[in-house]
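Archive record
______________

***
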Amino acid sequence: MPNTHDIVQRGLWFEEFDLEARYLHRPGRTVTEADNVLFTTLTMNTQALHLDAAYAAGEEFGQRLVNSMFTLSTLVGASVAQLTQGTLVANLRFGAVAFPAPVFIGDTLYAETTVAAKRLSASRPGQGIVTLEHLARNQDDVVVATASRTTLVWCEGARP
């Protein structure tokens, strides 16, 4: 049973999202071969560029590419503890998603988020709509992924 001295890690209530902040999600996440193979096979993606080192060696980048859906999932997942853990009602949509540079096994991903817009929900009292712009950079500060995500979050004190 929680008491008044318990502090539970959580994301932000609607009111706490700051339109001027850049949220840096740390630590970074180094991508392993196991990550890439497991995610790729779990999602039934048989793309040889992800799984076949000999094949990928003969292609444009000369090595296996990390599955872009793993990159997207890691980018969004890195933001959860800081922004939406326990305060999210639902993801409403993903907008523009881009992968401007490849991710390779051994790269480390660093995620950050800015708030593009926020407004109270007209149809769901006690909840607000927040549009997040996520960005991932690798260890060399190269942008490797961007994504827009619109979320429905609780207002402070409104969650049952």
Observations:
- The helical segments are 33-42, 48-51, 53-57, 68-83.
- The chain has a mean pLDDT of 96.
- The CA atoms of residues 99 and 145 lie 4 Å apart.
- The radius of gyration is 18 Å.
